[in-house]
């Protein structure tokens, strides 16, 4: 990155991090790296929420997303995770559409079993 771009990205930083190129470059690189990690973590969280919602309806995440893709339903993962948490009936309608679009969704995915732990006295 050239000096001008680094200083534009370093606006608002404290101390010499906003006006000394060597320090500003380090702080900007660190800030951009943290943003990438944050985006990666949020995407992972959305996928986990969608997966939990789909498994309630006996479909796994991959088959659900493939069915939506086949039906050309273009909702991103953020919106799908919000639907699975706050609008369960709307999400169930999407699961049904996905299940009809992709025959792999008709296979039963067993919900996790309760494991009984023996209690020794």
TrEMBL record:
A Gene Ontology BP annotation from the UniProt entry: translation
Task: List the GO terms this entry assigns under cellular component, sorted alphabetically.
Answer: plastid; ribonucleoprotein complex; ribosome
* Intracellular or extracellular location(s): Plastid
InterPro entries noted in UniProt: Ribosomal_bL20, RIBOSOMAL_L20_CS, Ribosomal_protein_bL20_C
Q: Which residues form a coiled coil?
A: none
List the PROSITE patterns hit by this protein, alphabetically. RIBOSOMAL_L20
* Cross-referenced PANTHER family: 39S RIBOSOMAL PROTEIN L20
Q: Which family does it belong to?
A: Belongs to the bacterial ribosomal protein bL20 family.
Per its record, how is this protein called by name? 50S ribosomal protein L20
């Amino acid at each position: 990155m050239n000096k001008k771009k680094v200083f534009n990205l370093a606006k608002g930083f404290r101390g010499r991090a906003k006006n000394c190129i060597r320090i500003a470059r380090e702080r900007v690189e660190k800030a951009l790296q943290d943003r990438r990690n944050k985006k990666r973590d949020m995407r992972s969280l959305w996928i986990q929420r969608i997966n939990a919602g789909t498994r309630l309806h006996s479909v796994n995440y991959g088959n659900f997303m493939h069915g939506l893709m086949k039906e050309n339903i273009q909702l991103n993962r953020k919106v799908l995770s919000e639907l699975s948490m706050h609008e369960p009936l709307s999400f169930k309608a999407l699961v049904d559409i996905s299940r009809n679009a992709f025959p792999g969704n008709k296979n039963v995915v067993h919900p996790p079993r309760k494991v009984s732990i023996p209690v020794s006295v």
